[in-house]
């Protein structure tokens, strides 16, 4: 038994973040300014995008992306029910309709084979979600988007630094796929929330290769006022600005960006540590019949934002909720990712969804547990998690072979 509770997630911060933040405070420029601009440039370079627009959340990033492509009332956007609230919520901001498509059982990502049947004349965009940090099947999804002239907004809240077949998530498709047809509006939206793979406390980033779309997002992120208006209080700035559209208050502060710059500098080290933790978990659990380790694939780089363990409940004498309580009793923090959106009251009432409408998402949700996986975990922490999981399995193994 541990002496202290192991949190499900903790940010990996040290003197580097403190130094950047103190420097920012001492500069006198604490809201959107030069560090936010620098963070946008450096993050875009890290993922291979031409433009990076820092904002105050991934929710804001997706909202701005959909605004930039002209989403309107009555339009439809196809996404997955197996995601956090924000993915569909931003569609509702426009009084447009989120259209759900079920997931693949192996990786929790949207099933590309089901997307085309959901496309209608009202479909405006696709939002694939790279859940846990494992990329969705982008080649197939992008081909569908291009064939039907749909915008594509990648929800990459979990996916830094992930790669899909050598392409960094955030990088534009550019040549190889666009040679097969016309290019389409394309964005990748990242989250820097406190639990994410890098954090600014609260924050997000829009990456795109399209300068016109990036400029629109920058303008709309700060009240719809003309570019460089953030600089109007500087010696080189001007008091004059123009309101070009009714925008939003989505800008990232320099204090948040300062933290982001420090986090970005050690992102590779933190990713390698999470990958090592996943490998330790996999090795411990892969031959346990009561457990199913997360799916991975050789042609992608998993960001390992989440370690989504599944319970083979027919072989256990307890349910998922009891398993979580047993872990909590052993001072191990856990979570569940996610309660599918179609199970929530709003979507049930607004669209009449029932659990059976997306059977794979419903089934896999009922047996998923997310274990701690963050770079501040010690070797002892990892071992404590492993031992706790294995102890609970041994205690509650269904030796009768009965099926519930």
* The CATH class of the largest domain: Alpha Beta
Radius of gyration: 22 Å
- Give the strand order, joined by hyphens, for the main sheet: 1-9-8-5-4-2-3
Query: What is the H level of CATH, i.e. the homologous superfamily of the largest domain?
Result: Type I PLP-dependent aspartate aminotransferase-like (Major domain)
What's the total count of β strands?
13
Main pleated-sheet profile: 7 strands, mixed
Mean pLDDT: 95
Written account of the structure:
With 404 residues, the chain is α/β, with parallel strands linked by helices. The chain has two domains: 15-265, Type I PLP-dependent aspartate aminotransferase-like (Major domain) (Aspartate Aminotransferase, domain 2), CATH 3.40.640; 267-396, Aspartate Aminotransferase, domain 1. Helices cover 36% and strands 12% of the residues. The chain contains 13 helices and 13 strands. It has helices at residues 15-27, 34-47, 58-68, 85-92, 138-147, 175-178, 211-221, 254-265, 267-285, 320-329, 345-351, 359-365, 379-396; strands spanning 51-55, 76-79, 97-100, 123-126, 151-155, 163-164, 167-168, 186-191, 204-208, 291-292, 300-301, 307-311, 368-371. Strands 1-9-8-5-4-2-3 form a seven-stranded mixed beta sheet, with helices on both faces. Strands 7-6-11 form a three-stranded antiparallel beta sheet, with no helix packed on it. A three-stranded antiparallel beta sheet has the order 10-12-13, with no helix packed on it. Helix 4 links the parallel strand 2 and strand 3 (97-100). Helix 1 runs antiparallel to helix 8 and helix 3 packs parallel to helix 4 (85-92). The longest helix is centred in the C-terminal third of the chain and has 19 residues, at 267-285. The mean pLDDT is 95.
